[in-house]
């Protein structure tokens, strides 16, 4: 493995932006990256000033992402990869420009705002030969990776049902009207593409596939906008059908009072079941048919290889969100160093699936909540 640090440039993530901060922490965990360039906001002066506070050299603190692509591409010590942490509508043009200029891409979800863009990006990744990593955070948790390995090893038998819930309450009121950071663009269809189904539903949908290894073929969705005047969905109830005969359900909502970041997942087969809750991420409940319900702990007895590999400290020394994110960065670095390597990080293909999910949800709900095919 090369120990050369991967030089990255960040687009978005200036000031108090949520995800930019998380990505910068995650990329530093294993010392595999160096943040060398940035176009951190839409205002050129602020973008450069924010870059200075992060120690980015003045000649690499850019006023726009277009300037960053052009000037970095011309440097001998050019960046290797671009991190995209902007509102959704910019993911496609930024990632497209980055791939065309020969940079790897680490991109936030949902990958794009339309299915056509997602497909175009997948074709471009294929053509470019560059790495593309989609940061579905929850796939980085050791106990999620353990659940995936247990399902693949047949521990729960043939899949019967998967249930994923992602519930929040921070959009329970029309906070976008007060200009609340993050809420304005998330409730603008042109900038977000969709509401709760894109913002958090795609995480639940991705996680269900990540763990089960199965992709549903059809869905039925009832989307609502409970907050008056809101132009995107803020609540979604979705049923899934799989080709194997398995069934699934996804609940995603940002208006359910009392829920902070309440993501949970339950997977049931004919031989057993698994349960995981994001707010207690070190625990995975496993029940083998006919046996007592069992609590498995991160890096504890019964850990699988992926859970051990994803753990940084011994069992009972709590790890969480940032370590999970850092696992995604570590694995992406491995794949950039060695493109032949398969890593458990969502790819551009998963990004297309996410947009196919959003598109099918909108179609189904628009037809009065009828069953529709999911067209990846
Ligand atoms: N993986 C996760 O768990 C997770 C969690 C939250 C958000 N997200 C995703 O991360 C992305 C960012 O979300 P956020 O919550 O950080 O949003 P945010 O509003 O906090 O930050 C967005 C940033 O993009 C910048 N920006 C806007 N226009 C720009 C432009 N033209 N050029 C450069 N920068 C520009 C803003 O200045 C800001 O710094 C979204 O796609 C969101 O869906 C992912």
Side-by-side strand order of the widest sheet: 13-12-11-10-6-9-8-7-14
Query: Average pLDDT, to the nearest integer?
Result: 97
The CATH homology group name of the largest domain: Dihydrodipicolinate Reductase, domain 2
Low-confidence parts lasting 5 or more residues at pLDDT below 50? none
Order of helices and strands: EHEHHEHEHEHEHHHEEEEEEEHHHE
CATH fold group of the largest domain = Dihydrodipicolinate Reductase, domain 2
Q: Regarding CATH, which class of the largest domain? A: Alpha Beta
Assess the beta-strand content as a share of residues. 15-25%
Query: What kind of sheet is the major sheet?
Result: 9 strands, mixed
Structural class: alpha/beta
Bound small molecules, by name, code or SMILES, are: nicotinamide-adenine-dinucleotide
Helix content: 25-40%
Shape: globular
Query: Distance N terminus to C terminus?
Result: 35 Å
Corresponding CATH architecture of the largest domain:
2-Layer Sandwich
Organism: Hartmannibacter diazotrophicus
Pfam family, one: GFO_IDH_MocA
EC number: 1.1.99.28
Protein name: Glucose-fructose oxidoreductase
């Amino acid at each position: 493995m090369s120990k050369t640090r991967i030089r990255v440039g960040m687009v978005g993530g200036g000031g108090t932006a949520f995800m930019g901060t998380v990505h910068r922490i995650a990329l530093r965990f294993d010392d595999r990256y160096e943040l060398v360039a940035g176009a951190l906001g839409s205002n050129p002066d602020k973008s450069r000033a924010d870059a200075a506070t992060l120690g980015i050299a003045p000649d690499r603190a850019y006023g726009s992402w277009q300037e960053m692509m052009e000037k970095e591409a011309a440097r001998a010590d050019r960046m290797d990869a671009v991190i995209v942490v902007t509102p959704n509508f910019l993911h496609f043009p930024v990632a497209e420009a980055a791939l065309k200029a020969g940079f790897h891409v680490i991109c936030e979800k949902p990958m794009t705002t339309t299915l056509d863009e997602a497909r175009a990006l997948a074709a471009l990744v294929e053509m470019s030969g560059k790495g593309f990593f989609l940061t579905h955070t929850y796939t980085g948790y050791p106990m999620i990776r353990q659940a995936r390995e247990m399902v693949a090893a047949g521990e729960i038998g043939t899949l019967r049902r998967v249930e994923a819930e992602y519930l929040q309450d921070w959009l329970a009121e029309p906070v976008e009207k007060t200009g609340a950071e993050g809420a304005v663009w998330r409730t603008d269809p042109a900038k977000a593409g969709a509401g709760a189904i894109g913002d958090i539903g795609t995480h639940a949908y991705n996680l269900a596939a990540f763990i089960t290894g199965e992709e549903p073929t059809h869905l039925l969705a009832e989307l609502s906008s409970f907050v008056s005047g809101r132009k995107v969905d803020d609540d979604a109830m979705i049923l899934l059908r799989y080709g194997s005969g398995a069934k699934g359900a996804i609940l995603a909502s940002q208006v359910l009072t009392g829920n902070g970041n309440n993501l949970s997942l339950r997977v049931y087969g004919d031989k057993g079941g698994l349960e995981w809750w994001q707010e207690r991420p070190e625990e995975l409940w496993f029940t083998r048919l006919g046996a007592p319900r069992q609590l498995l702990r991160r890096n504890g007895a019964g850990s699988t290889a992926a859970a051990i590999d994803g753990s940084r400290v011994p069992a009972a020394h709590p790890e969480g969100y940032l370590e999970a994110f850092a696992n995604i960065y570590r694995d992406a670095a491995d794949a950039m160093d060695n493109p032949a390597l398969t890593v458990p990080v969502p790819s551009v293909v998963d990004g297309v699936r996410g947009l196919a999910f959003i598109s099918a949800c909108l179609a189904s709900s628009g037809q009065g909540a009828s069953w529709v095919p999911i067209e990846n």
